[in-house]
Amino acid sequence: MSLKLAPLIFVIFGSLMPSLTLAEVNILTSIRPLYYLVEGVNQGINTHNLLVADALSPHDYQPKPSDIQKIKSADIIFRIDAKFQPRLTKIIANNNRTAEVISVAQLKEIALLPNETHLTGHETNGHGHSNNNFDLHIWLSPLNAIKISDNIALLLSKLDPKNREKYQYNAKQQAIHLKKLDLSLHKKLQPLQGLDFFSYHDAYGYLTNRFNLNRSLAITPTLNHQLSAKRIKDLIAIAQQKDVNCLMLEPQFSTKYAKIISNSRPNMRIGTWDLLGFELELKPNSFHILLNNMADNLASCLKP
Ligand SMILES: [Zn+2]
Asked: 92: CA distance to ligand 1 center in Å?
């Protein structure tokens, strides 16, 4: 039941049901990593749906009819940013005008980093990936995850004050776990400092920034999916110049270009990492597994 209907129902039935309590909050979250964090605070208290569950890039997301239903029934929607998934922004506007829509990249505690296209002055192709200037893959820093988690607790407490203490307790526990994770990732990634590597798209600034690694060199910074012969030639030259021996792919994308680039260098390793955690269970702990797996996969590709 929608929270907003509750006062109306109370007016109608209030005299008959003086002990009526508010219905649960219907939560909708846009992508898996954010779902894991929200569920860490929610812990099964309310209905919690996920939009982009399948193994496709959220940037290429197209809604299914069942998604529209999820959007219509939501009381609160957690997403990364209006510009992270532009199609979703339109669909929300057309199907639910009353839900609270939270863009976690806009939280005042989150400091956004510039994206690679901005840093290198490449032209953007106008799709929703880059927000023109900022990297929006903010969940890849455990510190950002703590800030997001604390805000989730505040927002859920506002909608559902009777469970405020539970949300705050859950967020506190989640923060303790995330701090431990941050420490262990620092240890794991420290030997990789100073080494250059390629990534598929420009998504890893928060991870490399947090753990003092060199920023990844994205083979397709704007998620163009098609690389020109000139771009491939340039990438091979960059690999030579910077002694790049690791290319991290994402499971959703083709290995075609990675193979061409790696064939040019005998020591080039191809690794895979999944910044969205598609294979993981829809459970709070999956957030930790996601970051841990990413660190392990990077470490085995980028070892000195
Ligand atoms: Zn992305």
From this structure: 20
Given a contact cutoff of 8 angstroms between Cβ atoms, the answer to whether 82 and 103 are in contact is yes
Taking the centre of ligand 1 as the mean of its atom positions, its distance from the CA of residue 223, in whole angstroms, is: 8
CATH number of the structural domain 3-180: 3.40.50.1980
For the chain, the domains span 3-180, 191-302
* CA–CA distance, 268 with 261 (Å, rounded to integer): 8
Fold equal for 3-180 and 191-302: yes
- Counted residue by residue, the chain has a size of 304
CA of 232 to the centre of ligand 1 (A): 21
CA atoms within 13 A on the CB side of 230: 0
The alpha carbon of 221 and the centre of ligand 1 are apart by a number of angstroms equal to 9
Q: How far is CA 19 from CA 14, 133, 157, 166, in A?
A: 8, 52, 21, 22
Q: What is the mean pLDDT of each run of 10 residues along the chain (304 residues)?
A: 50 44 84 97 97 78 89 97 89 95 97 77 43 85 98 98 98 98 98 96 95 95 84 95 95 87 91 95 96 98 90
- In this structure, CATH architecture of domain 191-302: 3-Layer(aba) Sandwich (3.40)
Q: How far is the CA of 59 from the centre of ligand 1 (A)?
A: 6
pTM of the model: 0.87
